[in-house]
């Protein structure tokens, strides 16, 4: 089969985006990081002062959702896909801890989800995509050709994210990263509207004891068996 839709869902910091990027490249498909969209909406809410003291002005955000334009464009120097918010490259900014702390409450808002899901469905309508997120196999593309659900223990995920921050020269305590991972797990899987859960027909891969390369190999095996 050609031009498949491959959905990769799972908890935060499982390496979903990194593996999806590599898998898309191997297949000559487009990778879409759906989490980047929720992060861009969160950044927008900060820019407009719709978030104050960790409280979101939900009606105001909803009223201005149609002013948010999110695009992915290839960066000419690094060849990587970067996230653009209203024409500005925000790839780095959306990964900041300040955004990670507010993104799950923002993602709980049904109007925000509807907005992002519509965009994701539009970007993936022609197939040949690998999309990673929380609800791709359940809500965005319930008929996706291949569904993978990635898990790993929260301790291991926090450690990975912590090392990533360290490599970027960001001094954030492991406990703070661990707390954020656990909090996002909880909110993402308990929200009322389109919670994070494994689709019935998704194949689960636990990568607690696998590195990125090994995870890619395992997922590629599954993908190839279904192509
Ligand atoms: O994938 P990433 O960790 O960057 O996603 C950030 C947050 O965006 C998640 O913790 C979750 O709250 C939200 N998200 C979501 N649905 C998706 C992708 C991300 O709710 N499909």
From TrEMBL:
InterPro entries referenced in this protein's UniProt entry, alphabetically: Cytidylate_kin, Cytidylate_kinase_dom, P-loop_NTPase
Gene3D superfamilies in the cross-refs: P-loop containing nucleotide triphosphate hydrolases (3.40.50.300)
Localization, UniProt: Cytoplasm
GO biological process: nucleobase-containing small molecule interconversion; pyrimidine nucleotide metabolic process
List of residues binding ATP: 10-18
Cytidylate kinase domain location: 6-224
GO annotation, cellular component aspect: cytosol
Main subcellular localisation: cytoplasm
Kinase keyword on record: yes
An annotated Gene Ontology molecular function: dCMP kinase activity
Key words of the record: ATP-binding, Cytoplasm, Kinase, Nucleotide-binding, Transferase
Keyword Glycoprotein: no
EC number: 2.7.4.25
Catalytic activity annotation: dCMP + ATP = dCDP + ADP; CMP + ATP = CDP + ADP
Homology family: Belongs to the cytidylate kinase family. Type 1 subfamily.
Entry-linked NCBIfam families: cmk (TIGR00017)
Protein name according to UniProt: Cytidylate kinase
Natural source organism: Chishuiella changwenlii
